[in-house]
Inverse folding.
């Protein structure tokens, strides 16, 4: 049945919300004007006052299908629970930012690997002016989903024989995944995650509070941000605790891929997302080789589980890179080099293991991320060294360099002076 649905899915157009793709079955919408109806005593009829265009609302029905359909459902559920508007890419509506008002899903009776979904959205802004950039980001999201699907399918097929030997083999794979997931706890509890939470606040909160691409929420408060951070920590901790009960290859694959996206969605600043996800891209358990059948099976499962976990982190790092906003061409180029090296290392591992599907998915995702980052690097200013013969105030330097004193905070952040009134005589700054 799922094979038929996969074939059928190819005949439908694809849609995505917050970069998570799904198949569109049908769509509808509501348009009109806001009207206020006034009644007056002693007068016949009514007076209708026009209050402007009403919000455009949309209703979309679709489904996810295949081995990764439940992971896509979980990602869409997480997207529905995020604050603020998200990007909707629809084959006929186009590109819009919209608030998701309702999201529901169901698994049809008697069918496996199929999830029907329905969502209602209200448009916020039209984004046709950013079509090219958005298309690149959507490509990265689709490639990331493809990597998740390939690594999940490969993991289940390559460990099936070994896992059939008994609970000791399953426990070995679960222990690797559980040990790897502890890095997510370290990440969400770190000072970097707390600083990232503050990046959504509107205002100046010091040189360490800014974010690289995080959306500013004018209604956010410090208490609200900290409450949200506490809730996010609890969500990640719950996801990590769930690893202790995993008892199948499908469960381990789904939980690993869901964990990295849960962690990423819990952190507001894309730069912090990349930094905190980076350690999860390294998973090298101690593997004892053995000629005994059970020992060889345990070694195989440990190795494949480690690869699965690393690739889950790579998928989330790629999506974080698409949202990251570099300040200079130099930063974008350095990030490109680091990310490409990280992906290339995993490509070699997949190639050496003969895992062709995962290799191709990693290679395609690496190319998409590099293209996106290098394209943005070409449009950004370079970093240059500024030399002065006296310790001038940051406000004075900002006016001298850019004719804009409001960029003083930017200079302070790069130079990291002891005091903004006494900037170092030599420091780095943007060329324009």
């Amino acid at each position: 049945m799922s094979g038929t649905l996969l074939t059928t899915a190819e005949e439908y157009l694809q849609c995505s919300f917050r970069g998570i793709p799904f198949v569109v079955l049908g769509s509808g919408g509501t348009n009109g004007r806001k009207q206020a109806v006034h009644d007056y005593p002693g007068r016949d009829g009514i007076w209708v006052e026009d209050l402007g265009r009403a919000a455009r609302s949309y209703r979309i029905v679709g489904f996810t299908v295949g081995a990764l359909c439940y992971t896509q459902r979980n990602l869409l559920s997480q997207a529905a629970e995020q604050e603020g508007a998200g990007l909707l890419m629809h084959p006929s509506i186009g590109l819009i930012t919209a608030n998701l008002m309702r999201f529901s899903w169901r698994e049809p009776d008697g069918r496996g690997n199929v999830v029907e979904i329905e969502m209602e959205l209200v448009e916020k802004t039209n984004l046709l002016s950013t079509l090219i950039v958005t298309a690149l980001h959507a490509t990265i999201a689709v490639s990331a989903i493809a990597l998740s699907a390939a690594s999940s399918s490969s993991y289940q097929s390559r460990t099936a024989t070994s896992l059939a030997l008994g609970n000791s083999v399953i426990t070995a794979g679960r222990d690797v995944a559980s040990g790897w997931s502890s890095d997510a706890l370290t990440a969400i509890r770190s000072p970097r995650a707390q600083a990232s939470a503050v990046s959504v606040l509107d205002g100046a909160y010091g040189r360490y509070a800014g974010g690289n691409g995080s959306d500013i929420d004018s209604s956010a408060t410090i208490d609200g941000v900290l409450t949200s951070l506490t809730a996010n920590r609890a969500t990640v901790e719950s996801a990590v605790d769930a690893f202790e009960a995993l008892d199948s290859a499908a469960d381990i694959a789904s939980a690993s891929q869901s964990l990295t996206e849960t962690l990423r969605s819990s952190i507001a600043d894309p730069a912090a997302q990349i930094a905190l996800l980076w350690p999860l891209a390294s998973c090298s358990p101690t593997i004892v080789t053995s000629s005994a059948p059970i020992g060889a099976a345990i070694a195989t499962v440990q190795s494949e589980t480690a690869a699965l976990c690393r690739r889950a982190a790579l998928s989330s790092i790629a999506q974080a890179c698409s949202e990251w906003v570099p300040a200079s061409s130099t930063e974008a180029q350095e990030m490109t080099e680091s990310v490409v090296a990280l992906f290339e290392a995993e490509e070699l591992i997949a190639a050496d293991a003969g895992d062709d599907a995962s290799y191709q998915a990693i290679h395609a995702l690496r190319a998409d991320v590099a293209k996106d980052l290098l394209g943005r690097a070409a449009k950004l200013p370079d970093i240059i060294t500024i030399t002065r013969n006296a310790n001038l105030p940051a406000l004075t330097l900002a006016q001298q360099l850019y004719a804009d004193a409001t960029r003083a905070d930017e200079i302070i952040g790069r130079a990291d002076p002891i005091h903004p009134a006494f900037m170092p005589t030599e420091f780095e700054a943007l060329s324009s």
